Amino acid sequence: MASIATAYEVSPLDDRIPFGAKVSGLTRDQLEDPQIRKSLNDLWTEKGVLLFRDGDGSPEMQIELSRCFGELEPHLFKETRSEGNPDLVRLKYYPEDGTLYKVNGELRGSWLPWHSDLVYSAQINRGGILRPVQLPSWLGHTGFLCQIAAYERLPQELRERIEGLHVVYEVRINLSLNPFTNAGDVELEHFAESGGNIERRRHTFPRVIHPMVYTQADTGRKVLNVSPGFSIGIYEDGGPEGEELLREVVEYCTDPELSYFHEWEPDDMVLWDNWRVLHCATGVPPDATRVMERTTIKGDYAQGRVLGLDGPVAQFDM
Length: 318
Description:
CATH class: Alpha Beta
Order of helices and strands: HEEHEHEEEEEEEHHEEHEEEEHEEEEEE
Mean pLDDT: 92
CATH topology: Double-stranded beta-helix
Number of helices: 7
Low-confidence stretches: 314-318
Structural class: alpha+beta
CATH architecture: 4-Layer Sandwich
Strand content: 25-35%
Shape: globular
Distance between the termini: 46 Å
Largest sheet: 8 strands, mixed
Number of domains: 1
């Protein structure tokens, strides 16, 4: 088997940011080496975002590579699952069937604000690998932000204020109604059929809470655990002061100096740690088509709680 030294090359994702790495030349047969799988996991823990390029970019590689980092699970919303393969989520925008927003005066298909996947659930998936199926001629970028780096930039006074606090999240597919995204003026033009179906039953999903700060188990580093998308307030203070505090924290979460926007190439695959990395989508022009497929890597950092009538309830105790 190929040695770790010769199996793949690692380089910085972007010299401007303190996270991320590019992995070049990885092939599917190399994943049979336990040392390579461990080295990839160690790299992921350290860097948070891994771009796989100049290797095997097939759907089969996407699924097998994802399994190096954990079990796979179907997405919570059945409408998003790829037909014939429950291990894949299909994220798509077609001009004839796609969710369209007007974002600060510009029409964007499949636009997404900064968020963590499944943060509206008590169990947040460990991560995912995203792969392009059909790319538009321009736009369609995916942004990433490291919440460890964001926490390190918080003033000490703000760190002390948010320690021990929690954010409330709910399923709200109409992203123009998310009050804390810090995205400017956003208006929904129309839903894709699948998005409309999810929105109609959103009240069947309970609200949940997650801590604003937690400690990464493998390294002891603090994570600013706040998703602007799907957040509706601070659990301990639902009044104006709590809203002001959450908006102040979101300013750090969405600091453009810490962001990386990936310009996709056809065989790229990007893995991110959903427990410490926010992501977003710039969207595409309304007449463009963009199709992506993503795995959902199972996991639970055991910090989320379902909100019941009597307050938080541990999901794993129910």
